Each structure stands twice: as structure tokens, then as C-alpha cells.
């Protein structure tokens, strides 16, 4: 429901920086960490985001600057320690963000008009920001990978909180859903299949597969590389794709293959032990025009079976839901921060889900309703309103998982601060006199 929060924040930061650039002509460097610079606009953008978000305890500019310096230090150290984020991961996240951006603006044309830049230019700018964020996150994970929290530590942390400072938690709910994807119509499928078959004929007559992929593939990550997916281990790709690829001989081209991502024309390049190297041309149907009637009828039937107690909701979700993120958990949604299935019933919840629950009774299942997946696909879902917990002051018995998440995050922050104090001597760090009172390079509270 709120997956990839980090990447979404990158997306918001990118948009905010573009808006800042439209209004601020002059900018200046306020800090330097090896070859990485921090601009005053970077600092002000993040500060304004906190202010306008309405969050309590907005950090000071000095605290934000310290975080920016730590992030740049992580980037500098990642170069020294050879911590690398693969291009495939960056491309996958970038494509997801661009699809989300297109949904928000309505079309690619609207995006271009809003920012006065071409889609390739916007993507390249966002890609650089995204790469930095993912690299810093990978470095952070390396630093905190061994940080664990024990039940006794959670108990000590909770008991250290003054009784009059215990957080008052809002109403919480346990909610599940079963999702079925809308399907391409037969004419849509035929159109895509015929296009790919035409590309296959053209390659067999001598045209370059890579050039056709660059021109026509809708896998934006591999498309610019001529459809090249690099070496993949067996089991890494989705089953229909891998099964088709491994049936081919080197340089042979497959028939059209359908997977959850669309329709593929695959060319096997090489097999090396348990790895294979392939490229493809991907075409996807227009997700705005898919047929949801089959999914709707299917979920309506499942809903009736659950209501008659012919099958439990959790079992139905495991058997029939096409949301892989929740399928194994019996369809139950979870808070992205705490991983708890108890989710706050407040403004942090997905708005569509929040208003749906407002009209439902606990223990009931909604009728099938339209749903948009995280990757922008049209779908239908039914919602199970399992339980509702009354608002209360935090206690260890009911809120252990939340307290554990807070205690673990606190311990990780200490680990990062300890790493920072040690690692800052390995790189060149300069901060302008304007921010000398921030004491960024000193430990302790500011």
C-alpha cells in the first residue's frame, strides 16, 4: 500500500527541487564531502517539505544539514568501499516512479508542459537523484546490518519513557484484500502479438534486434540497451519468460510470450552454467483500457463463498489474490514502517482505503471495487475489515511490535552516528562559515 517509501520521497524531492529552481535564480554550495556538493537549495527544499507536511517536531536546518552531510559521506565512502547499486534496480525503480508521475499528471504530454522538459531529460535528472539515494541506503544497510534488538532491550526502552510522555495511538485496524488484475481484451492482445511477430520477421530478414528494442520496447530500462537484460540466474525471471528463453538456442528468437509484465519477444544470447543472457522487446497493453469484468465476476463469487463460510478469507487470498506483496500473508495489509498488520486509521492511510472502511462494518467484506496497483495496473479488489482497535496510550502488551520498531530505529541511528564520527576522517569535508554554528562535525545534540 505504501511500498518503496524511500523512492517516493526521492520523487517528491525531485519535484520540489524543480519547483525551487523555477523560483530561485541564484544558488550556492554550502558544503562539500569529497566530490559531492550540498547546495543551499537542497537544504531549503527539505526544510520546506517538513514545514508544509504539518509534521510535529520539524527538524532545524542544522539537523537537516547534518543528515545531508551524512548522506554525502555515505556516497563518498561507498565509492571507497565499492558499494554499488546495479543499474537494473535503478531502472526498475525509475520506471515505476515515471509511471506514477504519468498517472498523477494524466499523460506524458502534461508532464512535459508542466516542467518544460522532455521525458528523457526529466528521467535522467531523476535517475541521478535516485542512484544517490539508493546508494546511500545500501551503505546505510551495510552499516546497520548487524544491529538487532532483543525483547529485553525493547522492555528497557519502553520503561525509559516517562509515563506522561507515552504516545497516544489512534484507532488501528486490521484489513486484508484480494486483488485480481484486469485483463487485456482479445483485440488488444492480438494487436500486440501481431506487432511483435512483425518485429520477429524483420529481424529474421536482417534487421538488428537491438535497434528494434531501442525504438519499440516498453521496458524502459533494458530498451535503451537494445533490450539487453544481462546475465540472469535460473529462477530470477518470471516463469513464462525463463521457460521460453531456456528452450532457445543462442541467437534464436522465441514466439510471443505473455507474462504478468506484458508480451515479450525474446532472443537468447548465451548460456553460462546456471546463468543465461537474453534480451527482449516488451509491449504492454494500455492499462487504462483493460477489461475488468472477468476480475469483477471472479471476486464477486469469492466474496459469496467467504460470506457463506465455504472458505476462509486468508485461504482465498493465498489461493486467488494476484497481489504478491500480501498473498502469502493471507491478504493482510501491513504498516510499511512497523510491518505490523495493525494500521493507524488516520490520514496516513491510503485515502481510497480510508474512505471505504468509513462506510463498512467490522467483519464485513466489500463488493468488488476498482483498484490501481503500485505499478499502475488496473485491477479490482475486495476488502475484508477484520478488526478495529480503540485508541489508547501505548503499552508493551498491545504495542510491542511498534515499540520494537522505534527502539531498533534508535539503535540504528546510534550505529550510524558512531560510524559517522569514525568515517569523517577518511574524506574531505568542508562547510561554509554561514553554517559553522551547526557543529555538524561534532557528536551529540545540536
TrEMBL record:
Q: Which domain of life is it from?
A: Bacteria
Keywords (alphabetical) are: Isomerase, Rotamase, Signal
Under Pfam families, the record lists: Rotamase (PF00639)
| Domain PpiC residue range list | 170-270, 273-384
Key word Isomerase present in the record? yes
The keyword Isomerase belongs to this UniProt entry's keyword annotation: yes
Instruction: Identify the InterPro entries for this entry.
Output: OMP_Chaperone_SurA, PPIase_dom_sf, PPIase_PpiC, PPIase_PpiC_CS, Trigger_fact/SurA_dom_sf
Task: Please state the span of the N-terminal signal peptide per the UniProt entry.
Answer: 1-21
Record protein name field: Periplasmic chaperone for outer membrane proteins SurA
Q: Which organism is it from?
A: Pseudarcicella hirudinis
